[in-house]
């Protein structure tokens, strides 16, 4: 009985013979990297008995290849490859150990690499890299072994030669981490590139001179600024000087292989040096900025180490357009902005990632500490946000602001460990070895271009001064800075090396210093590769200099709307829709024949159809943007038969504008920053980011604060991004009610953006069209609805859509006699329908209701025309659903006072002030909603 039970279990087990090939594949992966298999399989393999004391088997495929090669050598050669002093069994065991040794260096050699220029790192002992760990010793150095896949260019080596080669390759100035990658092709490619030159290829004399020139420029710039503007903040690059020749080399190599645009994102460390020595900003302009001079046409402006810049850079493959993104002091937030800009530029270049290269620069503490880094890594391979890989460079100063203790800055060995989540290769490199830096830079670019994936260079350096030049770093890092004060600068170290090699003489090195300083004194561009910009970027000229009242023709004929409506409600016969979606599409067909009035979803979709029909592109992203969080949009149809998708809006007409709709990763901050970057690089596209609930937009608050609301004032950057934030009180609790309207209104100034609360399908139709057709680009913040998506009163006719006008203010719609009105209620959004419904139930004729559809810029003139009908009314009320300390009441109250007649008084009807945006109980919500409506309609 027991045997039959065991047999039945074995026959059904995943360990059964039928699965042998699969299990062997898993075991092969486990032998190469135990972390590459699931926990359950790792436990199985860990529990396997050890044979002959061997702790870990060698990869089976490697052994098979070894024996194939030995068989091909012939008997004599096989004998010579086996040490005579050992038996065949012992030889085989040692051969396995040698292959394990090679694998150990590939996995963990970086932990013994010479990476720290200061020599302060205390790397833990790695027994895997010791001969004794593999039952080998120096006594075996003369023995010849097969080296398997070690890409040195020979099949066999003596153990002594191999051991030296492994240390040169993996434990020199470069520490390569790539064995966490599961793709075999990528690993083999990296091994070939690294091992074939032992991480140290030959460097031509002209390349050495270029490296020295770059280091001289980096050092010279900082010394010049330090002497000329003593104590001024410049966030010096000193210690990380290799960044300058590194970036120039990276751009040059990119140009050689066909790159036409490079977009760079970086925080403040070394930014001024990059501006002058890479992008070619005129030093005299920078010096004027240090002296406090500025251009009065640039709005509020920003500090010099946040400034962006654009130029062209000459390479052997042609000019490359460079764009350094503007960014605030929020460190890593610029990275998704860069990627969004790159995506827009790629779209203009037929989605060719070779043509556009993103480079992002990070601080060591920032890349490990800022959550947006994880978000951008997570986005990097998704359909809607992929940019063909980013070259990420970490300026690793080994210290954050004042925190240098590893246990205080992160919980991982390296600051770059976050990159392993996307299996990006990581190249740690000692910045005092510029030739090693050059090697990994080219390797990183080639990897990115070949595999279209992110790659990370950890430039291990130091920070010669404090966080800024006014800080005293010895106060918090005494041992580190005692070492730094004695440590020669990178330029000096490399100059001494080239002098010792006979490449240059001492006077040659001094001449480079003198020539660079003279160029700075002259105030001219110091970058030989700088070229005047040509037409590399999109033309913003048509969108400059327009105000809110810029004329535009938004009309569209009813016949055209019917034609487009037919196309966007059609889909191939093979597409089977889910029953509710099918009902929705049948209703939309009825709307086009006049059988039904248009609801929100149909009007919105028609707006998109008219936009692509005139040739403009649309890009929409959000966590539920294809369907719509509240099941109203269904712009992306899902075939219930095979799971395929169909987007009717992509089939409006031949040659139409493109429309892309992506359900985004579960992120607000990085996704919205990406869309901001996209919108700043593509003005003709209607770029939309939609929050799942408007409340969740606060996860992207830094983007609203530092980019969207103030980017034009600080940096002169125009942007037409549209943000849809579902907003409305339906009793769904604190995190599903308020899009925090008050925060956006508080940020309103200088006509920086539009804040709208549309209340009808016709309004959303014309609002979206206005955003594209009007020759002006400003961000649009929309408090979009939830319950109004299917509200019986929130409907429109085709004629109302065709009118082509977005009404900033809507007056009374019922047939009231203005002279009989005693109270006027002003409001925005969904509460209007609650007020209207209750007033009709009350059969009141003495209370008028005015809807404000655009709260900023406040439409004073349009409002005045409607208010004129009630100039006799002294009792005016602002009614809102939000608590008194939220919503529009405090932020826009001054506008309301200006709008009402002189001598009138204004009161508030709404929820009391609250720390929470909404209550969590439906019964309490209903009581509050009923009370605020009654309060608004009851004449005291």
From TrEMBL:
It holds the Pfam family Transket_pyr. The keyword Oxidoreductase applies. GO terms for cellular component: cytosol; oxoglutarate dehydrogenase complex. Its cofactor is thiamine diphosphate. Transmembrane segments: none annotated. GO terms for molecular function: oxoglutarate dehydrogenase (succinyl-transferring) activity; thiamine pyrophosphate binding. It is an enzyme of class 1 (oxidoreductase). SUPFAM superfamilies: Thiamin diphosphate-binding fold (THDP-binding) (SSF52518). Its EC number is 1.2.4.2. Residues 598-791 form the Transketolase-like pyrimidine-binding domain. It catalyses: N(6)-[(R)-lipoyl]-L-lysyl-[protein] + 2-oxoglutarate + H(+) = N(6)-[(R)-S(8)-succinyldihydrolipoyl]-L-lysyl-[protein] + CO2. The keyword Oxidoreductase applies. Keywords: Glycolysis, Oxidoreductase, Thiamine pyrophosphate. CDD domains: TPP_E1_OGDC_like. One of its GO terms (biological process) is tricarboxylic acid cycle. E1 component of the 2-oxoglutarate dehydrogenase (OGDH) complex which catalyzes the decarboxylation of 2-oxoglutarate, the first step in the conversion of 2-oxoglutarate to succinyl-CoA and CO(2). NCBIfam families: 2oxo_dh_E1, PRK09404.1, PRK12270.1. Belongs to the alpha-ketoglutarate dehydrogenase family. PANTHER family: 2-OXOADIPATE DEHYDROGENASE COMPLEX COMPONENT E1, 2-OXOGLUTARATE DEHYDROGENASE. Homodimer. Part of the 2-oxoglutarate dehydrogenase (OGDH) complex composed of E1 (2-oxoglutarate dehydrogenase), E2 (dihydrolipoamide succinyltransferase) and E3 (dihydrolipoamide dehydrogenase); the complex contains multiple copies of the three enzymatic components (E1, E2 and E3). This is 2-oxoglutarate dehydrogenase E1 component. The gene is sucA.
């Amino acid at each position: 009985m027991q045997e039959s039970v065991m047999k039945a279990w074995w026959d059904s087990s995943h360990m059964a013979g039928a699965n042998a090939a699969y299990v062997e594949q898993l075991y092969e992966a486990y032998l190469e990297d135990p972390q590459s298999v699931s926990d359950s399989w790792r436990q199985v393999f860990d529990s396997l008995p050890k044979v002959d004391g061997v702790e870990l088997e060698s990869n089976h495929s490697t052994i098979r290849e070894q024996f194939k090669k030995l068989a091909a050598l012939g008997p004599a050669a096989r004998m010579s490859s086996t040490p005579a002093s050992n038996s065949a069994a012992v030889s085989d065991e040692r051969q396995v150990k040698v292959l394990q040794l090679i694998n150990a260096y590939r996995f963990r050699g970086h932990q013994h690499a010479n990476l720290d220029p200061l020599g302060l790192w205390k790397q833990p002992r790695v027994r895997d890299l010791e001969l004794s760990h593999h039952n080998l010793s120096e006594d075996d150095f003369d023995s010849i072994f097969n080296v398997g896949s070690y890409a040195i260019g020979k099949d066999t080596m003596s153990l002594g030669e191999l051991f030296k080669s492994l240390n040169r390759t993996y434990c020199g100035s470069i520490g390569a981490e790539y064995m966490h990658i599961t793709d075999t092709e990528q690993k083999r490619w990296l091994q070939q590139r690294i091992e074939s030159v032992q991480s140290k290829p030959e460097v031509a004399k002209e390349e050495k001179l270029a490296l020295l020139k770059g280091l001289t420029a980096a050092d010279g710039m900082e010394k010049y600024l330090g002497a000329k503007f003593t104590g001024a903040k410049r966030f010096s690059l000193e210690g990380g000087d290799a960044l300058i020749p590194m970036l120039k080399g990276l751009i040059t190599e990119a140009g050689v292989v066909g790159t036409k645009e490079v977009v760079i994102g970086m925080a403040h460390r070394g930014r001024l040096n990059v501006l002058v020595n890479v992008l070619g900003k005129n030093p005299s302009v920078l010096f004027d900025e240090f002296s406090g001079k500025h251009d009065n046409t640039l709005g509020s402006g920003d500090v010099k180490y946040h400034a962006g810049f654009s130029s062209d850079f000459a390479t052997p493959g042609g000019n490359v357009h460079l764009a350094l993104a503007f960014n605030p002091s929020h460190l890593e937030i610029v990275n998704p902005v860069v990627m969004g800009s790159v995506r827009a530029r790629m779209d203009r270049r037929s989605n060719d990632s070779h043509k556009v290269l993103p480079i992002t620069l990070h601080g060591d503490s920032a890349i490990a500490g800022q959550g947006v880094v994880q978000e951008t890594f997570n986005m990097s391979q998704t359909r809607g946000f992929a940019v063909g890989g980013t070259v990420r460079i970490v300026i690793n100063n080994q210290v954050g602001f004042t925190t240098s203790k590893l246990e205080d800055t992160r919980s991982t060995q390296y600051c770059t460990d976050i990159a392993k989540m996307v299996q990006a290769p990581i190249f740690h490199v000692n910045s005092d070895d510029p030739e090693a830096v050059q090697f990994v830079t080219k390797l990183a670019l080639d990897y990115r271009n070949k595999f279209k994936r992110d790659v990370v260079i950890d430039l291990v350096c130091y920070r010669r001064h404090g966080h800024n030049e006014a800080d005293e770093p010895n106060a918090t890092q005494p041992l580190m800075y005692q070492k730094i004060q004695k440590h020669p600068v990178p330029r000096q170290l490399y100059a001494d090396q080239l002098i010792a090699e006979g490449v240059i003489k001492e006077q040659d090195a001094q001449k480079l210093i003198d020539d660079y300083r003279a160029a700075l004194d002259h105030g001219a561009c110091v970058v030989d590769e700088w070229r005047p910009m040509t037409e590399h970027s999109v033309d913003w000229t048509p969108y400059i200099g327009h105000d809110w009242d810029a004329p535009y023709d938004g009309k569209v004929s009813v016949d055209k709307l019917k034609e487009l409506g037919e196309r966007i409600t059609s889909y191939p016969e093979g597409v089977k829709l889910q029953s509710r979606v099918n009902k929705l599409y049948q209703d939309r067909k009825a709307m086009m024949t006049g059988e039904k009035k248009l609801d929100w979803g149909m009007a919105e979709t028609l707006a998109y159809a008219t936009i692509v029909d005139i040739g403009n592109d649309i890009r929409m992203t959000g966590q539920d943007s294809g369907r719509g969080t509240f099941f109203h949009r269904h712009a992306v149809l899902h075939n219930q038969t095979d799971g395929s998708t169909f987007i009717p809006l992509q089939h409006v007409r031949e040659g139409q504008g493109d429309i892309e709709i992506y359900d985004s990763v579960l992120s607000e901050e990085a996704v919205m920053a990406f869309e901001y970057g996209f919108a700043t690089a593509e003005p003709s596209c209607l770029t939309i980011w939609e929050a799942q609930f408007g409340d969740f937009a606060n996860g992207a608050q830094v983007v609203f604060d530092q980019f969207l609301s103030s980017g034009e004032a600080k940096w002169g950057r125009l942007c037409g991004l549209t943000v849809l934030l579902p907003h409305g009180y339906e009793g769904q609790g604190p995190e599903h009610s308020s899009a925090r309207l008050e925060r956006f209104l508080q940020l309103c100034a200088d006509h920086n953006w539009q804040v709208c609360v549309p209340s009808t399908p016709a309004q959303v139709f014309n609002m979206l069209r206005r955003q594209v057709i009007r020759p002006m680009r400003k961000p649009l913040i929309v408090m979009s609805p939830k319950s109004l998506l299917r509200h019986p009163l929130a409907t429109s006719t085709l004629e109302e859509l065709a009118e082509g006008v977005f009404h900033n203010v809507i007056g009374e719609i019922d047939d009231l006699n203005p002279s009989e009105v005693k109270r006027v209620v002003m409001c925005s959004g969904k509460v209007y329908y609650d007020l209207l419904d209750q007033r009709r139930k009350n059969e009141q004729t003495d209370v008028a209701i005015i809807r404000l559809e655009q709260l900023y810029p406040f439409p004073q003139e349009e409002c005045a025309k409607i208010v004129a009908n009630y100039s006799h009314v002294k009792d005016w009320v602002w009614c809102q659903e939000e608590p008194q300390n939220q919503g529009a009441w405090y932020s826009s109250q001054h506008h309301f006072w200006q709008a009402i007649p002189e001598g009138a008084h204004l009161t508030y009807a709404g929820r009391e002030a609250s720390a929470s945006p909404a209550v969590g109980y439906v019964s309490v919500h209903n009581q509050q909603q009923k009370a605020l409506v009654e309060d608004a309609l009851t004449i005291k």
